Amino acid sequence: MSKPKVVLAYSGGLDTSVMIPWLKEHYACDVVAMCADLGQEQELDGLEEKALKTGAIKLYIEDLRETFVRDYIFPTLKAGAIYERKYLLGTSFARPIIAKRQVEIAQREGATMVAHGATGKGNDQVRFELTYMALNPDLTIIAPWKDVKWDLNSREACLEYAAKHNVPVTQSKKRIYSEDRNIWHISHEGGALEDIGLEAPADVYTLSKTLEAASDRPEYVDIEFEQGVPVSVNGQPLGPVALIDALNKIGAEHAIGQLDLIENRLVGIKSRGVYETPGGAILVEAIRRLEQVVMDRDSLREKDRLAITYADLVYDGRWFAPLRESLDAFFTQLHRRTTGKVRVKLYKGNIVPAGVWSPYSAYIQDLASFTDTHFYDQKDAIGFIRIYGLPTKVSGMVGRKGVQS
Questions:
Q1: Would the CA dihedral through 316, 319, 320, 323 be positive or negative?
Q2: Residue 366: pLDDT above 80?
Q3: Which among 15, 222, 260, 328 is annotated as catalytic?
């Protein structure tokens, strides 16, 4: 009789490595490991050999970068979704695509279980498990860090377990920060960052230069959009992955996209994170500039209002919720005219507007100037103000009567 199978989200790090023999031991199952390449630039050579040696029956290495950018990053960019004023959701929308592929592999392999290495104190557990529930509610979810059988609650305990079960562990100097990286960003938590009374140390930044080390010369960058989707950098058409890679390199030289945020986790804990999102920060500022010239006031305000809802949905792990999918339809319609070119100047962490052009621009220079044109007769403003101000005038009249009495 064949054993039941579990598909494990696998990185090759210490935690998920020891989970392979742990799952086999406690669930009497075969483990299929799955590693997603989202542009984290980690060395994948030798990962299959390590997974098999650890006890997995198979390893899937999935290059999901193109899908990640096209179907997760760009829709979030069009929505203008930013969590708590700053966070560009780099980890938040990475988990659903990993979990989705796990579910697909589980179906292919005939697996009845899926597992992840997220802890019970963070947001990722919710993002993984809500995706499993949405896409295949029949799968059994195993989360070792929350399992009563799991007693490996320290790095030392995991190392001891690894040695006992012949799990290969890469010996290298471990950074003191907990980090998550993909093509969109890199996040840093823990270590000195846990003291919110201290400035973030310079050594936390690994993707971009510090402000002090950033280039002393400003750099101009042109970005073209088609219906809200970036398609070229400095006149060169680029695919989704290459475009973000290019902007990451440019932005990193100028310390663009660095933020220090004390955020509210979904589970109720406040945590401090330092994020680097150089290319993403440039794209956010560029599309905002283009929106300013192509969208009317009501549309722009409604977009900003719904952007908060969209950000909450993504942050809270509800990527596959009907509401988020419906909002995508709204933002796609809204961006029909978000086409054009934006020029920005990058200098010492700053993104400065330096030009915008669009065939759908609603900015008419003659109309915006102080000079009278046939579009706008200033005398018409007399009647407009009288009608528009009538409720204010009535309120003032009533107020005066109340004071006099």
A1: positive
A2: no
A3: 15
Residue of 11, 17, 92, 124 marked active site = 124
Tokens of 49: 């050999």
Query: What DSSP line would sit under 141-170, residue for residue?
Result: EE-GGG-TT----SHHHHHHHHHHTT----
**178 belongs to the catalytic site:** yes
Q: Sheet of 178-181: strands edge to edge?
A: 178-181, 186-189, 270-276, 258-264
Q: Quote the pLDDT of residue 275.
A: 98
What confidence score (pLDDT) does residue 404 get? Answer: 57
Residue 197 domain flag = yes
The domain tally of the chain equals: 3
Give catalytic status of residue 260 as yes or no.
no
Active site residue: 95, 101, 127, 181, which one? Answer: 95
Q: Which helix (H) or strand (E) holds 115?
A: strand 113-115
Contacts of 26 (CB under 8 A, 6+ apart): 147, 149
pTM equals: 0.93
156 and 218 housed in the same domain: no
pLDDT on residue 171: 45
11 neighbors 3 (Cβ within 8 angstroms) = no
Question: Is residue 326 annotated as part of the catalytic site, yes or no?
Answer: no
Q: Average the pLDDT over 106-110 and give the result.
A: 98
Q: Is 15 a catalytic residue?
A: yes
CB 80 within 8 A of CB 47: no
Domain that holds residue 388: 367-398
Query: Do both 210 and 352 map to the same domain?
Result: yes
Instruction: For 45-73, write each residue's pLDDT tens digit.
Output: 889 999 999 999 999 999 999 999 999 99
One domain, residues 50 and 100: yes
- DSSP assignments along 322-372, one per residue: HHHHHHHHHHHHHGGG--EEEEEEEETTEEEEEEEE-TT----HHHHSSS-
Q: Beta strand pairing status for 219-226 and 340-347?
A: antiparallel
User: Are 350 and 371 members of one domain?
Assistant: no
